[in-house]
Amino acid sequence: MNNDSLHIAVVDDDAAVRDSLMTIFEIEGWRPRTFADGDMFLAEVKRQKFDCVVLDVHMPGRSGLEVLEALGGHSFNAPVFIISGQGDIPMAVNAIKNGAHDFLEKPFDADEVITRVREACEARRKRSEAPESKLAMRFTGAELLTPREKDVLEQIAHGASNKVAGRTLGISPRTIEVHRARIMEKLGARNTADLVRIVFTDGG
Amino acid sequence: MRDMLAGDGPLPGQSVSDARWSSILNTAVDGIIVIDEMGRILIFNKACERMFGFRADEVLGRNVSVLMPPEHADAHDQYLTNYKTTGHRKIIGIGREVRARHRDGNFFYIDLSVGEAQTPDGRQFVGILRDLTARKDAERRLNELQADLIRLARVSALDEMGSALAHELNQPLTAILLYLQAVGREFSRARENGHTEEADERARTILEKARREAQRAGAIIQRIRSLVEKREPERKSVDLNAIVDDAVDLTMLGQDRGVAITRHYHPDLPLVNVDPVQIQQVVVNLVRNAYEAVKTCKGGRIEIATGLEEKGVLLIIGDNGPGIPEDKVGDLFQAFKTGKRSGMGLGLAISRTIAQTHGGDLTVDPGGEGRGARFVIRLPLAVNEKSDEDL
Fold first, then answer.
1. In 3-state terms, what secondary structure has residue B226?
2. Torsion sign, CA atoms A16, A18, A22, A25
3. To which H or E segment does residue B371 belong?
């Protein structure tokens, strides 16, 4: 287990949710900072590098999705978790398409939040240390995929299940499912076998 | 006069006039009672027998107060004396709705009109009585149905707000869960690293925060509950500003706070005598409508204001949305006509009914051409009703 003191940004307009997340992160020995709205966070993110961002989707002013967009979506340098209520799943899915790492559904469990944040940070660190993707992304349509979708595709193409791929990439199997559907749509694949065929035969 | 008539002639010893008189009395649908100056019953017709359950021979000669509820029975002799000495009329020639007492001790409502006659035997009073029991029952039934409908609309409004309310409850629950787990972690850490005052203090602080969040969740439930609970309509003297403020907060729970709410409350509003839950229901309805109208516009604004007029208080709920299209204004207050995809289209119809049962009204300035819609509720000031005892 990595015991780095992670720098976590918590962006939520609800004071209690913000404070309770900060409390569990502090007990974990991490260094959380909290922001009551997107603008305050966006001002700070220019000065400080965070290892992970926990971002509420429902906020006054800029919504979580707008903040995500302002961060640069897929090209932002830290994993972003979107906090959503049960009713906001379509919004959360949308967030993942737009570069969020994963979503946390309220009310959430402290152990789960900590585990997933830690895994996401580790996966991100490993990826930045690892050499470029082994899978040559030269098939038609590869340029349509986001970096995260390429990661997922690589896992799928090598036969990883949603669960295994999720563990490797530090995201939930459900999120893998979202990416998978998105990739198949972009590449025009009808099923997983079709997907593998496209990746490996089409100039790959 | 002693006209001799064939057929249904007068009984021996009875004049034609007496016979005609007694026939009129006993055929009348309304109750007829005649009393003397002392309040003694001289005439008690058949309709009265049916109404009160007494036979005429049981009450003739007795004081009329035997037919009255205690609040009038005790004072009736005094009423008669007052009238004799001052000549001041409180009921004679006027007529009013009063309670009466049946032989079995139950009370019922009658419409009573009183006249007087100067007779050779002295001054007498004639009372004509109409039983209002059936009408009162129908009124009560109607009121019950209306109260049920109003409540139904309230539940339906909350139902539509369900996901926003769930979101709002989710916040404190999320925080409570995290706080409790944080305390658990503090404890495990204390077990490993040894027990310290500081660790205790940290755990206490966290528990206190969890308790506060539980209260917050409770307060949200409380607010919702008061709106769904089945209860009798009531009238209370309340501060309109306070109940309006509460209802606005409830409506905006969990809504996008990108919409600005401005509140201008009249600082010296007199108390109003209303059913607070029903008035809050109207506010919830109108604020929700306003929210729907502005939520998609940039800079959406809802204005809530209270004010004072000569005859009552005003509550204004306006927005800066597109206004109400001209062709929709006509049946805006009709039940089951809705421009929205969800809901039954009861909101405005019920809101107007509520305002009207309070003796007020709900009107609209539909706006349009750059102006938003503006709803105005007028409620009368609480008046001190004349006491019923004052016959």
1. helix
2. positive
3. none
B321 CA: distance to closest CA in chain A (Å):
19
Q: Collapsing DSSP states into helix, strand and coil, what is residue B101?
A: strand
- Within chain B, residue ranges assigned H as helices are 16-27, 46-52, 56-59, 70-73, 76-86, 133-160, 162-193, 197-228, 240-252, 276-294, 326-329, 347-357
A111·B181 Cβ contact <8 A: yes
User: Can you tell me the distance from the alpha carbon of A105 to that of B166, in angstroms, rounded to the nearest whole number?
Assistant: 13
The two tokens of residue A14 are 């609800």
Whether residues A110 and B181 touch (CB distance < 8 A) is answered with yes
Interface residue A115 vs chain B (CB under 8 A): no
CB contact under 8 A, A60 and B257: yes
Contact A27 B179 (CB under 8 A): no
Q: Which helix (H) or strand (E) holds B378?
A: strand B374-380
Nearest neighbour of B175 by CB, restricted to A17, A28, A58: A17
User: Strand B41-44 vs strand A52-56: parallel, antiparallel, or unpaired?
Assistant: unpaired
- Distance, CA of A64 to chain centre: 13
Q: Are B174 and A24 inside 8 Å of each other by CB?
A: no
Q: Which residues contact B353 (CB under 8 A, 6 or more apart)?
A: B146, B150
Can you name the residues that pair with A11 across neighbouring β-strands? A35, A55
- Of A87, A94, A109, A81, nearest to A170 by C-alpha is A81
A31 exposure class (CB count in 10 Å sphere: 0-12, 13-18, 19+): middle
Q: In this predicted structure, which of A143-152, B16-25, B328-337 has the lowest mean pLDDT?
A: B328-337
What residue type is assigned to position B343 of the chain? Answer: G
Please answer whether residues B317 and B290 qualify as being in contact, where contact means their C-beta atoms are separated by less than 8 angstroms. yes
ipTM of the assembly? 0.71
Question: If you measure CA to CA, which chain A residue comes closest to B182?
Answer: A24
Beta bridge partners of B108: B100
pTM over 0.95? The answer is no
Which residues, in sequence order, are CB contacts of B287 under 8 Å at separation 6+? B247, B248, B251, B252, B302, B304, B317
> Which residues make Cβ contacts (< 8 Å) with residue B60, sequence separation at least 6?
B41, B42, B43, B44
Reported as a single tens digit per residue, the pLDDT across B288-335 is 889 888 888 888 899 999 999 888 899 999 999 888 888 777 777 776
For residue B160, is pLDDT > 80?
Answer: no
**3-state SS, residue A32:** strand
B17 touches chain A (CB under 8 A): no
